[in-house]
Amino acid sequence: MYWFLVIIVFLLAGVKSQKPKKYQKVSVIIPAFNEEETVAKVIKVVQNVSFVDEIIVVNDGSSDNTEQEALNAGAIVINHETNKGKGQALYTGYKEAECDIIAFIDADIYNLTSSKVESMIKPILEGKTDITKTKFARASGRVTELTAKPLLNFFFPEISFEQPLSGQFAARKEVLKRIDFEKDYGVDVGIVIDADVLGISITEVDIGAIEHDMSPLSELNLMANEVVRTIMNRANKYGRVTMIDDIGYYIRMAIVGLLLIILGLFTIFFVKFVPLSVGVIISFIGIVAAIYYIIKVIVKSINMFKKTPRGNLIKSFVKIHFPMIISVIILLLMISTFIGAAHFDHGVLSIEPNSRNLIIYADDSQRDSAISVRGPYTVDSAIENESDIIRMPSDAMLGLGIKENDTIRIDDEKYLINQTRDGEPDILRLPYNAKHSLGVQDDYIIQNSRLKEIFSGSTITHSFDKDNISVYEKYRVSARDSNASVYEIIVNNNSILNSTGIFKENSNYSIAIDGEYVSTVTFPQKQTIEYGNNTIEIIFKDTNSTSIKQFVTQNKGNFLNFDFESYISKEY
User: Fold this and answer.
1) How far is CA 106 from the centre of its chain?
2) Among residues 70, 85, 192, 222, which one has the fewest Cβ atoms lying within 10 Å of its Cβ?
3) Model confidence at 454, in pLDDT bands (50, 70, 90)?
4) Is 162 helix (H, G, I), strand (E, B) or coil?
5) How far, CA to CA in Å, does 560 sit from each of 402, 438, 543?
C-alpha cells in the first residue's frame, strides 16, 4: 500500500512541477488616416478580445479628429506629422509594439466583431501557423482581380490565396523581422510574397463579411501602381524574372533539341522515304542543341538558387515550368526506349525498338475488355525437363484464344500450355522443336500482332468447364482475322457455353463424347443430339465478329468433344 502512495505523490509532484506554457503578449496595430467616424468603434471591439494586451493606433497625418477619438477610446496613439502611407504606418506600429504577436486591422471597418479578431489571432496563439491573413465576403476587389492575382499567378504560382490584398493580418513579431515592410499599399502583398518565399507558414482565415468605405478611383490607381511595383520588385529579388525569362528560354530550346532527336530517330526507324543520312543529321543537331541548352539551364539555375532564399523556390520552379518538365520527361522516356532496344553483338550494334500492341475491338465478339494493350514477347528456351510444355504469357494466350492446360499441336509435336514463371511476364518459353517448327530462336521479339502469324497452322484444343461438363473445341490458328460466327451449346435446356470462331458454309463438323464420334453438325444448321438421358443442342448465330480460330472440319478431327463422366455420375 505504501508503494502505491509513493507513486501517487511523485505523479502529483511531476504535474505541479511541469513548466507552465509561456504567456504570449498580443498587440493590435490600427493604421488610421482621417478615420474619426470609425476608429473608436474598432478600438472598442478589439478591447473586448480577452487576450489582447495592447492597442496602438498609428495616426498617419490625419487632418480630422482621429487622434482624439483614439485616445478617448483608450488606445495608445503614435502620430505621423505627414501622411507616409499604410506600409510606413504598419511598420511604425510594429517597431513600437512590445509583444509576441501583432495583429494589423484597418480603422474603417463598420461591422468588426471580437470573433473576427479572435479568428485572426487564435491560430498563431495555438501554434498552428506563423502568419494569418484574412479573406472575407465582399465584391471582388478591382486591384486584386486586375493586377495582384494575374501577376502572382505568373511569377509566384504557388501563392493561391483568394484575397492576397485583404489588409487584415496577424503574425509573430519574430518572423516579421525577416520581412521587408513596403511603405505604401504594397505592404500586404509584400508580406505574403516574403512569407511564401522564405518558407514562413502563412494561413488564410475566413472572417465572414465586412463593411468599409470603398476607395475612390484615384486612390485605386495609386494602390494598383504600388501593388504592381511591389510584385515586380519581389519577382526580380527572388529570381522569378530570371526563372521565367532566361531559364524559360533555355528550357524551351532544350525541348526543341530533344524534339529534333526524336524526329531524327523517328525518320530513321519509321519513315522509309527519308534517307538515313537526313535522320542522322537531324538527330545530331538535336543532340548538340539539347546538351548545350540543358547545360545552360543547369548553370543558370545553380546561380539563381545561390542568390535567392530556398523557401518555396523549387515548388514555384516546378509549377511555372510544369508543362515543360513533363515534356522533357516524356521525351527522355522515348529516347530511353530506343536506347533500351540497342543490342551489341560481335562488333555489330543493332537497334530494334519494339512497342506494345494497342487493341480496340469494334465487333460483337465476347471479350474481357474492349480495349487492351499486349506484348511484345521475347522468345526463350524451355525450362529443363519441360520439352513438351510451352510457357506462354497471359496476354499471348488471350491473343490465341487459349488458356492454361490447353494443348497445342505444332507440326507433329503436342505441347501443354502453361503460365510463365514469376518475374517473366513477357517471356515466351518454347522447347527446341517448337522453336524450330515456328522459325524463331532465343531473344526473338514477337509483336502481339504477329503472334497469330507465327503460330499459323497450329492446332489448339481448348477446354471449357461448366456444371460438371467439360467441352473441348479444336481449331487451327489462322494468320489473319476473318468473319466469324458464334455457336451455343445447350445441355438439358441449360446454356453451358458460347464461343466464337470461323466456320465454312455447309461444311460438316464432328461431335464426340468421351473421345468417341457420335454425330455430325452441318454449319449453320441447328443440331440436337440425344445421349443417354441428356439432350445436347448446338445452335449457330450470326454476329458482327471476327476471329483467328478456324474450327476443324470432319475430315481433320473432332470439332467438339464432350466429357460427361462427372456430370452423369452426379445425375445417378
Assistant:
1) 42
2) 222
3) very high
4) coil
5) 15, 26, 21
Between β-strands 131-137 and 202-209, what pairing exists: parallel, antiparallel or unpaired?
Answer: parallel
The CA distance from 209 to 163, in Å, is: 13
Three-state SS annotation for 305-338: HHHCCCCCHHHHHHHHCHHHHHHHHHHHHHHHHH
Residues in CB range of 78: below 8 A, 6 or more apart: 56, 57, 58, 59, 92, 93, 96
Instruction: Count Cβ neighbours within 10 Å for each residue of 82-120 and write b for 16 or more, e otherwise.
Output: eebbbbbbbbbbbeebebbbbbbbbbbbeebeeebbbbb
Spatial distance between the Cα atoms of 525 and 521, rounded to a whole number of angstroms: 7
Q: Per the omega criterion (within 30 degrees of 0), is the bond before 376 cis?
A: yes
Q: How far is CA 406 from CA 238, 382, 462, 482, 488, in A?
A: 68, 17, 5, 23, 20
The grid coordinates of residue 421 equal 514463371
pLDDT tens figures, 417-447: 999 999 898 899 999 999 999 999 998 888 8
**Which grid coordinates belong to 465?**
468447364
Helix (H, G, I), strand (E, B) or coil at 241: helix
Phi then psi for 541, rounded to 5 degrees?
-135, 135
Distances (CA, A) of 294 to 52, 251, 297, 327: 55, 7, 5, 14
Residue with cell 498609428: 58
Neighbours of 333 (CB within 10 A): 9
Closest C-alpha among 498, 454, 503 to residue 480: 454
Q: Please give the Cα distance from 75 to 55 (Å, whole number).
A: 5
Q: Evaluate whether 484 touches 501 at the Cβ level (below 8 Å).
A: yes
Mean pLDDT along residues 58-81: 92
d(CA 532, CA 510): 19
Does residue 483 sit in helix, strand or coil? strand
Q: How far is CA 497 from CA 123, 136, 209, 401, 473, in A?
A: 67, 66, 68, 15, 11
- What's the grid cell of residue 143? 486591384
pLDDT score at 360: 65
DSSP one-letter code for 146: I
